[in-house]
Amino acid sequence: MNKIVYIGLGSNLGNKSKNIQIARDFIQNIDGINVTKISSLYLTAAWGKTDQDDFINQVIEIETKLSPLDLLHRLQDIEIKLGRQRNVKWGPRIIDLDVLLYAKETIKLEELEVPHPYLSQRLFVLIPLQEINPELEFPDGSKIREVLSRVELRADGRDIKKL
Fold first, then answer.
1. pLDDT tens per residue, the chain (163 residues)?
2. Catalytic residue list contains 154
3. Quick check: is 24 catalytic?
4. Contact criterion met (CB below 8 Å) for 84 and 93
5. DSSP letter string over the chain?
6. Where residue 132 sits, what CATH number does that domain have?
7. How far is residue 113's CA from residue 101's CA, in Å, rounded to a whole number?
8. From the candidates 86, 96, 122, 140, which is the catalytic residue?
9. Which of 8, 50, 84, 127 has its CA 20 to 30 A from that of 91?
10. Domain that holds residue 70
11. Is 93 a catalytic residue?
């Protein structure tokens, strides 16, 4: 049975928009994945390690039969193909692909945690998530609007801009 999954895409090196497009094309070409919704692109300030170039971020919705770990491994393969190197935590990267939500499942494995552990703190994924699914409900029952409004209260709004 197909599962609805949300993936975050980000890039802050090279031609950022093109990097996201190429990664999205790779994702669409994986057997067992169908990209069903694509958010706008957003220019966002770096999060976590802030002394680096701004990111371009996007969220996509997919339908897939792949298991969570199989999906993660396929996404990591795409990151490697595009030249991603994991030298510095939250450092600059040509592409970053994160499994944000996997259906209504809560997953806690050494390799993968879903919902993504920082999902409820990051405007750069919450805003595009709401754009493509304004009625989204998280596994804990909270709604995207509630979570987003809590984060927006703490943010000044200058760190994200729709392109």
1. 899 999 999 999 999 999 999 999 999 999 999 999 999 999 988 876 667 789 999 999 999 999 999 999 999 999 999 987 666 665 688 999 999 999 999 999 999 999 998 888 888 999 999 999 999 999 999 999 999 988 877 665 557 899 9
2. no
3. no
4. yes
5. --EEEEEEEEE-SSSHHHHHHHHHHHHHTSTTEEEEEEPPPEEE--SSS-SSPPEEEEEEEEEE-S-HHHHHHHHHHHHHHTT----STT---S-EEEEEEETT--EE-SS-EES-TTGGG-HHHHHHHHHH-TT-B-TTS-BHHHHHHHHHHH--STTEEE-
6. 3.30.70.560
7. 9
8. 96
9. 127
10. 3-162
11. yes
* Residue 96 appears among annotated catalytic residues: yes
Residues counted in the chain: 163
Q: Of 54, 70, 86, 98, which one is the catalytic site residue? A: 98
pTM for the model stands at 0.92
